[in-house]
Amino acid sequence: MTDDLLARHQAVLPKWMPLYYAEPIEIVSGSGCRVTDANGRSYLDFFGGVLTTMIGYDVPEVREAVERQLRTGVVHTSTLYLIRQQVELAEKIARLSGIEDARVFFTNSGTEANEAALLVATNLRRSNQILAVRNSYHGRTYAAMGATGHRSWSASSLNPLQVAWLHSGDRLRGLLAKLDEADHIEAAVEDLREVLATQTAGDVACLIAEPIQGVGGFVSAPDGLFAAIKKVLDEYGILLISDEVQTGWGRTGEHFWGYQAHGVTPDLLTFAKGIGNGFALAGVVGRAEVMNAVQAISFSTFGGNPISTAAGNAVLDYVLDHNLQENAQRIGAILLEGLRAVAADHPAVAEVRGRG
Ligand SMILES: Cc1ncc(COP(=O)(O)O)c(C=O)c1O
């Protein structure tokens, strides 16, 4: 069964879209944290479809919310009409974002969310220069890929932006590794000043950064680094975009958003993955004066459609009602402790890291 599907997959899908495992599996059903493949084998799913099935499979509250919307007969209207589910979700996200007088724009993917954030920042600042971070991942379109500091995910050098690169915050590899936290932050700030002075024309639009680099291997800079960096950005009026595609919704355990570990509020925050729990839902949040800087019409046909936002509302309510942030903190601590104990006997393991 699966072999046949593999051959058909290879015959019609591009080879740069990789499959996991020597013998790729087809997941045919799921419930809670478990999935079952086409051969009837059951798995405990630690991956969640690239960190996306955040609250598990076949959650009744989400299924019922989506079925309720389906029963209205309206799957799609476009954003040219009022969408109650979208407004309700935007109100919740605006309230939770920590950003004052927030506006929310919904998209279908994290890539598009980052693209929208970069559009807003470059429009507001009337500049196509940005700062990005080595070892980052922000998506697969030209601007998002251009801000991605990762060779394996950079399929093209074409870039609408002028990008200057900051150090990654990695404490295992690279020039700033091995420094203690305070020295690391000082060196990163010094590097930022040097990059601004030597690689830009000064009027930079924004810095885009992940609070914890996901695709780059769950690399987290010392807490507080964003705050120290933002002090310098503020001297120049440069906006901070926090890419919370992996770190949002309480998943780091300690905080609801990854940026909160740094003691700073970003100008723009992008989200995706977990909020739809599998339904295509993402977006960007920012202060009204920043978000409203776009000077032409810009909309997304599908972004925040009635089905995805019905799911998003149910997912977000579930996360809050079940205090899943606290759960992430508790389970994360158990996993870290256990993995560290295992790693102690395996010198090939350089580091065990992660949050939540
Ligand atoms: C931090 C981060 N930003 C953006 C993206 C792109 O999101 P999407 O694949 O939904 O376009 C990803 C995807 O893995 C991500 O991890």
Write the layout of secondary structure elements.
Layout: H1 2-12, E1 27-31, E2 34-37, E3 42-44, H2 48-51, H3 60-71, H4 84-97, E4 102-107, H5 110-125, E5 129-133, H6 142-146, E6 162-166, H7 181-199, E7 206-209, E8 212-213, E9 219-220, H8 225-236, E10 239-243, E11 268-271, E12 282-287, H9 288-291, H10 306-321, H11 324-344
Parallel strand pairs: 5-6, 5-7, 7-10, 10-11
Antiparallel strand pairs: 1-2, 2-3, 4-12, 8-9, 11-12
The protein binds pyridoxal-5'-phosphate.
The site of pyridoxal-5'-phosphate (PLP) has 16 residues, from helix 5.
Report on the architecture of this protein.
Helices cover 38% and strands 14% of the residues. With 356 residues, it is of the alpha/beta class. It has 2 domains: 1-46, no CATH class; 62-320, Aspartate Aminotransferase, domain 2 (3-Layer(aba) Sandwich), CATH 3.40.640. β5 (129-133), α6 and β6 (162-166) form a beta-alpha-beta unit. Bound molecules: pyridoxal-5'-phosphate. The site of pyridoxal-5'-phosphate has 16 residues, from α5. It holds the Pfam family Aminotran_3.
